[in-house]
Amino acid sequence: MALPAQKVRSTLPLSLENVSAAWLSRALGERFPGVVVLQARQAELMAGTATKVRVLLEYNEAGRTAGLPATLIVKGGFSAHREMMSYVYELEARFYQQLAPQLEMRLPRCFYAGTDPGQQAIVLLEDLDVRPANFCRVQQPLNFVQAQAQLAALATLHARWWDGSALTPGGELGWLKRLDPLPEGEAGRYQRGQLHPEVYAHYMGLPRAVAVSCYFHDRDRMLLAMERLRSIDRQGPFCVLHGDAHLGNLYFDADGAAGMLDWQVVCQGPWSHDVAYLLGSALDVVDRRDWEQRLLRFYLEELRARGVAAPAFEQAWQLYCEQMVYGLYYWLVNPVEFQAEINNCAVAARFAHAVIDHGTFERLWRGSVAA
């Protein structure tokens, strides 16, 4: 019988005060032998699910010869919710360790990725302001060309391991969890906890709830819809998902190429999750109504161009419409520690309109076309 896991002291910094020149030297030295950080000064702090801090660095001759940048973004768990969210920090580190080197898509360059499972994970990322990259924001929805570019990026990600043996339990990426909109047991402590009657009622008292129909204030109705989505998401084919493709996690390079950030919930699951989440959150409501069928056809063609036997449009449309409830639920119960309330208001409203437009709840009650 296996012994119970013992909590050991983390070898990674648990506070920003310990992200020192000495620790940065050790971290960077794993890929760049001989590099010493002579001085590290923390500048801008960016709070969120993970904490990000811009660090200004000075190197020895080995660092300068290696062309290491003068600024890096240190990202990890440095806030009060670190222990509760430690698994998402680990997921992002493992993404940069194992998946990113195999993807031909725009990503921040990663200089270090380390994990202490259950305690801390830290990545040292390229400062995209130096490129410079154009970061997306909730206040500025995507235009049609930008939406196509982001869908092409998703198609690149999805096609890479589409329905492949790498995603099976014994495969190279078998460690990637299968998407579950509402996990049971300890794995779903956060997701299901938001549906406790008093917790859900708290969120329905915030400004975001005023931005959506009172129809969605019904906690029991939301629970039933999410349970139905669970059964749909167990169907294949499966691919690697970004899992959280909203505007705050998207950017564009100067040449217009689409990039993606924040791989904290990377997982495997149905393609329709990422596509519906992207279009439901990142398009203005009027534009989504006008463009979404054309954009979905574009995405399916991008899959086919990458050698994937993509589903027919009618089948894809059904799956896409069903997925809108996921974004609605999670933006309705999104803690203000993760997203400012103005963002929760805007995105919850966009998903609420999409759910109404597509009769998502009614589709879920009727059942899903098998993928």
Can you tell me about this structure?
The chain is α+β, with helices and mostly antiparallel strands. It has helices at residues 21-29, 61-65, 86-99, 144-160, 189-193, 197-203, 207-210, 219-233, 271-282, 285-305, 313-332, 341-358, 360-366, and strands at 37-46, 51-59, 71-76, 110-116, 120-126, 134-135, 239-241, 250-252, 258-260, 267-269. The two termini are 40 Å apart. The model is unreliable at 1-8 (pLDDT under 50).
Short description:
The chain has 13 helices and 10 strands. It has helices at residues 21-29, 61-65, 86-99, 144-160, 189-193, 197-203, 207-210, 219-233, 271-282, 285-305, 313-332, 341-358, 360-366, and strands at 37-46, 51-59, 71-76, 110-116, 120-126, 134-135, 239-241, 250-252, 258-260, 267-269.
Enumerate the strands of the largest sheet in spatial order, edge to edge or round the barrel: 1-2-3-5-4
**Quantity of strands, as a count:** 10
What is the CA-based Rg, rounded? Answer: 21 Å
Low-confidence parts, pLDDT < 50 over ≥5 residues? Answer: 1-8
Distance between the termini: 40 Å
Strand content is 5-15%
> What is the averaged pLDDT score?
92
Describe the main β-sheet briefly: 5 strands, antiparallel
The dominant shape is globular
As a percent range, the share of helical residues equals: 40-55%
Category by helix and strand content: alpha+beta
Q: Would you list the SSEs in sequence order as H and E?
A: HEEHEHEEEHHHHHEEEEHHHHH
Q: Helix segment count?
A: 13
